[in-house]
Amino acid sequence: MSERFFPDGMPPPLANAITLPFWEAAAEHRLVVQRCTACGHMQLPPSPVCSECRSDVPEWHEVSGRGEVFTFTTVHRPIAASQELPFLIAVIALEGADGVRLISNLVEVEPDAVEIGMPVELVWEDMSADLAIPRFRPQRS
Ligand SMILES: [Zn+2]
């Protein structure tokens, strides 16, 4: 199991037929974005059709997990019991993903130390045997 940042009582993400491949890859600690096989456009969250060309033939493209903080907010109210406060919600601009942004959490950093544009890297949090959540921390390398 990975290091834990959030308590077990956190509401889990709801997978559906469109998002399931994302969560299956996450369970293997692979961060993927949907890429259109017709025009190459990348998008997240996934959709049945490409937002650029309307093709309905996507594939999944693995990204490095590096990126930068596009924006963030500090949350002072818990959403689960035993949750440490405050915690950080951030929009991460993913490197090598054609401008795709992912909403996630920042960990291993104090709120006052976070800046827009700060380089971050992926860290997986295994919530259970089949659910891993991508979180981000300041880049170490
Ligand atoms: Zn397309």
Give keywords.
6% helix, mainly beta, globular, 5-stranded antiparallel β-sheet, 141 residues
Written overview of the protein:
- This protein has 141 residues and is mainly beta.
- The chain has a single domain, classed as OB fold (Dihydrolipoamide Acetyltransferase, E2P) (Beta Barrel), CATH 2.40.50.
- The chain is 6% helix and 38% strand.
- It has one helix spanning 20-27, and strands spanning 32-36, 42-43, 58-62, 66-75, 87-94, 101-106, 119-128, 131-138.
- The strands form two sheets. The chain has a five-stranded antiparallel sheet with strand order 6-5-4-7-8, with helices on one face. The chain has a three-stranded antiparallel sheet with strand order 2-1-3, with helices on one face.
- Strand 5 and strand 6 form a beta hairpin.
- The chain starts with 19 loop residues before the first helix and ends with a strand.
- The mean pLDDT is 95.
- Residues 36, 38-39, 41, 50, 52-53, 55 line the site of zinc ion (ZN).
- Zinc ion (ZN) is lined by residues 36, 38-39, 41, 50, 52-53, 55.
